[in-house]
Design goal:
heterodimer, A: 115 residues, 9 strands, B: 113 residues, mainly beta, 7-stranded mixed β-sheet, 4-stranded antiparallel β-sheet, 0% helix
Chain lengths: 115, 113
């Protein structure tokens, strides 16, 4: 399985944008890039995912490098509720296009948001 | 809408006792189902995944087993728990077709004493 590399921790101030980087230099052509976040004692929460094009949703934006070897999760205005561990994960698909998609979690980035 | 149910939320079991954790999904058909475990202060480890009834793949050798008796039911079991089985167990599902996001259950905190 292709691996991802994330910083162990990052800090931000409330109301400011946050850019969480992820390197995935061994990504394959059919791997989707997923982002999840986890609060203490809770299950991971889906944030966003994409394949090649940048993606936006109500929670965040995902910027994917042209060579797909890196991506950045963008929280446009951090709030205290955004403090969590953020995981960048690759999900593989088989050649038929259906996703058996195991998620392999790394250690993630601990995001601290200061008031 | 789709929902995932996982129970119990917490469990304290003695060493050597059996285990059964259940996960059910509503509002979808033919989901891919997954069991993860998270040890204290560590990332999630994939234990089992299933792409259909009776189809179970194990990711790591261990004291646990999984079964999928119905399309939307996934069960994690053990005949005899070990201290090392303590952890936070999470069930997740995703749609089979295409690459969709994954939805996780609220987890079961298992403490083996």
């Amino acid at each position: 399985d292709a691996k991802t590399t994330q910083p162990n921790s990052m800090e931000s101030n409330e109301e400011e944008p946050v850019h969480l980087p992820c390197n995935h230099s061994t990504i394959s052509g059919t791997d989707y890039i997923h982002w999840y976040r986890q609060l203490p004692s809770q299950g991971p929460e889906y944030v966003i995912h994409g394949l090649t094009s940048n993606v936006n949703n109500r929670m965040a934006s995902l910027a994917i490098a042209e060579d797909r070897k890196s991506s950045t999760l963008i929280l446009h205005r951090a709030t205290l509720r955004d403090a969590a561990v953020y995981y960048c994960i690759l999900s593989g698909s088989n050649a038929g296009g259906t996703s058996y998609g195991k998620l392999t979690f790394g250690q993630g980035t601990i995001l601290t948001v200061h008031p | 809408s789709q929902t995932i149910h996982q129970w119990p939320a917490t469990l304290v079991q003695p060493v050597g006792s059996p285990l059964s954790l259940e996960c059910t999904v509503e509002g979808t058909s033919n989901p891919n189902l997954y069991w993860y475990r998270q040890a204290a202060g560590r990332g999630l480890q994939l234990l089992f995944y299933s792409v259909g009834i009776g189809q179970i793949s194990s990711e790591v050798p261990q004291n646990l087993s999984a079964s999928r008796p119905q399309d939307r039911q996934f069960i994690l079991s053990s005949k005899k728990l070990l201290l090392s089985d303590s952890g936070f167990y999470l069930c997740a599902w995703t749609a089979r077709q295409g690459a969709y996001g994954y939805t996780f259950g609220s987890g079961t905190r298992l403490t083996v004493v």
